[in-house]
Design brief:
3-stranded mixed beta sheet, alpha+beta, 8 strands, 22% helix, 5-stranded antiparallel beta sheet, 181 residues
Length: 181
């Protein structure tokens, strides 16, 4: 009986460490969000394309947070599967092979849009607009803070998008505008 009572604090501490460890790692890497499913499609309002339409259709492939690098909002464009895989691997986006496999590089660009570095995990980015300005694709992001406890680690909230390029002029790069709180 006495040895059982001595083990209780150890068990409680271990259970607490597992619980806290789960909270700290939430938001670091890919997403289990349904919006990252292959069939997910988001039309981003308030944009505009080369044809002067009101919105630029985007498919959101993934969202989450990756280890922060202390940078301002930025975007990356991939035109081939190899470029996309290298880009996603470099930024530690989990599930790169699955994400790349859902893009038709013959007719779509893969865009990685990163919000400004956030002070903790749990921040999320959501595309709110997209437009073409000259030879640049401009993606607007809305960034939301965590709902509850979050680990204290610099995080770059991100979204990975597939952009139909059939009606677009050649795009040289991506600019990201974020509304980080």
């Amino acid at each position: 009986m006495r040895s059982t009572l001595r083990r209780v604090p150890t068990i409680v501490l271990l259970a607490g460490a597992v619980f806290v460890g789960g909270i700290v790692t939430t938001g670091c890497g890919g997403s289990d969000d349904d919006s990252a499913s292959p069939a997910a499609s988001t039309t981003v309002p308030g944009g505009g394309n080369a044809a002067g339409e009101d919105s630029l259709p985007l498919r959101q492939l993934a969202a989450g947070g990756v280890p922060g690098r202390g940078e301002d909002a930025r975007g990356y464009l991939a035109t081939t599967a190899d470029e996309a895989r290298a880009l996603l691997d470099d930024r530690a986006v989990s599930g790169a092979d699955d994400i790349v496999g859902r893009v038709d590089f013959g007719s779509e660009y893969l865009v990685l849009a990163l919000a400004s570095t956030a002070p903790s995990t749990g921040y999320w980015a959501k595309p709110t607009g997209a437009r073409v300005e000259g030879d640049r694709l401009v993606v607007s992001l809305d960034v939301a803070p965590p709902d509850g406890m979050a680990g204290q680690a610099l995080t770059d909230p991100f979204v990975v998008l597939a952009v139909d390029r059939t009606d677009l002029p050649p795009i040289a790069g991506v600019d990201v505008v974020d509304a980080t709180p």
